[in-house]
Amino acid sequence: MENWSMETPSRINAENIPQTITQNPSELTLGSACTENAFQYPALFTSKSFLELSTCSWSRGRNANENIQPYLRGCKWSPDGTCCLSVVNNDGVHVTELPSELYQGVVCGDRIIDVLESVIHLKETGSVYDFCWYPFMNSTNPPSCCWLTTKQNSPIQMWDAFDGSLRCSYRGFNAVDEMEPALSVSFTSDGRKIIAGYKKHLRIFDVERPGREFTEQKISSSASSISTQNNLVAVGSWNTTITLYNESEIGTKKIGDMYGHGGGVTHMKFIPGTLKLVSGARKDHRLFVWDIRYYRKPLNILSRVVNTNQRIYFDISPCGKYLVSGGTDGVVKVWSLDHIDWHSSLDPVNNTTDDVTYKFPLYKDCCNSISIHPYRPILATGSGQYHFTDPIKSLSEKTNNEAVDSSSDDSINQYDIRYSSHSENCLTFWWTGDVIELNKNLRRCV
């Protein structure tokens, strides 16, 4: 990527961005002491409250079909912390910037909530399957500012984070020379290669050589999610298994398989600086914590609410002390190592209690997206899901018959989330550190 060049746009003024926001993540050391090349990660959830900082939402067009429902399907902070990338159903990809006054300092409880606007909007025609930032993205180095998307009926595409232009694409072809869309995509930890998961193969592309050149590994089930750390690659599949690979040995052999989820694996993430992996699956209320050295069974099982096939993201803080996850009940759960050793060994069979540290009821709808800021005590959350129309109510409206009794409608909403009238679709930034003064914008833990 060093061969790419472009002028630095005026949208981001590098002089106004603190060193900790733009420093190369590979040069950061998370510890108790701050040195010239060290960064002390701030304490999170110290006030046991969330302060709403900024928000934005999307609505259906005036002439759009009723089945067109724009809602968040994921959000991720850029590695330098200056902007957030989000995918909206039926509305493509959006890039929103973090307000510059939040780059440093603390906030007051009476701060006015900002209304976010997208600085980049890509109107994708198909469903976006997966997306990820270049791991060393830095706003002061324009060639590094890019992200990948993979979507329906399209190759893997690399987009410029300054102007939203298409830089290049990476194409995977099957045995009959037909182009296949990747179901999942991720950069390797050094940023030099792209690992993409397909229905029957893993394919590895060289970042500096776009096109159709790749090496591949045959797999038994579709690769629904990918997570990398150092030379380790974890591949989740729709058949509920997780397969571990050594990056240099993909194409020849694998480390082993991990079993236990009740549905297809939708999201995974390594705990920074450890050999532990956290995984979640569709219609599975459990988050598994694995030690890949003893991968036959999970170390711990954490509980969240996942009632649909939708991907529910979770995130782990860069310091490795906090695990945060949303759920279809709209509650954000936080597990903290300062209160519970959530990645120590427990008996998975008898672990029936909810040992969560904090609960934050943020939404009435599904909270499907979570992303912790890489340097600041700020959390990005996204909400929404597809809501089916109640067939009984629709039939009564079409035939002009008597409307369905409100009490019966409430009972349907209470037991069947598909017909719920509580529909939310918004991207929100929350302050999770110390607050100078409390006010009504705070969401307290329960």
Question: CATH H level: which superfamily?
Answer: YVTN repeat-like/Quinoprotein amine dehydrogenase
Q: What is the CATH-assigned architecture?
A: 7 Propeller
- Please give the count of helices: 3
**Residue-averaged pLDDT, rounded?**
81
- Reading off the top of the CATH hierarchy, the class is best stated as Mainly Beta
Q: Report the C-alpha radius of gyration, rounded.
A: 22 Å
Q: Gap between N and C termini, in Å?
A: 47 Å
Q: How does the major sheet shape up? A: 6 strands, mixed
Total domain modules: 1
Give the CA-based shape.
globular
Question: Quick one: how many beta strands?
Answer: 32
Spans of at least 5 consecutive residues with low confidence: 1-37, 401-415
CATH topology: Methylamine Dehydrogenase, Chain H
The computed structural class is mainly beta
Q: DSSP strand (E) fraction? A: 35-45%
Give short descriptive properties of this protein.
mainly beta, repeat, 36% strand, four-stranded antiparallel beta sheet, single chain, Methylamine Dehydrogenase, Chain H, 446 residues
Question: Can you put this structure into words, describing what you see?
Answer:
WD repeats lie at residues 317-338. Belongs to the TCAB1 family. It comes from Bombyx mandarina. GO terms for molecular function: RNA binding. By secondary structure, the protein is mainly β. It has a single domain (47-387, 423-444), classed as Methylamine Dehydrogenase, Chain H (7 Propeller). Helices cover 5% and strands 36% of the residues. The protein is built from three helices and 32 strands. It has helices at 19-22, 391-398, 406-415, and strands at 49-57, 72-77, 83-88, 92-97, 114-115, 118-122, 128-133, 146-151, 156-160, 166-170, 172-173, 179-180, 184-187, 193-197, 201-206, 215-218, 223-229, 232-237, 242-246, 256-258, 265-270, 276-281, 286-291, 300-303, 314-316, 322-325, 331-336, 358-361, 367-372, 378-383, 426-431, 442-444. Strands 1, 5, 29, 30, 31 and 32 form a six-stranded mixed β-sheet that branches. Strand 13 (184-187) and strand 14 (193-197) form a beta hairpin. The model is unreliable at 1-37 and 401-415 (pLDDT under 50).
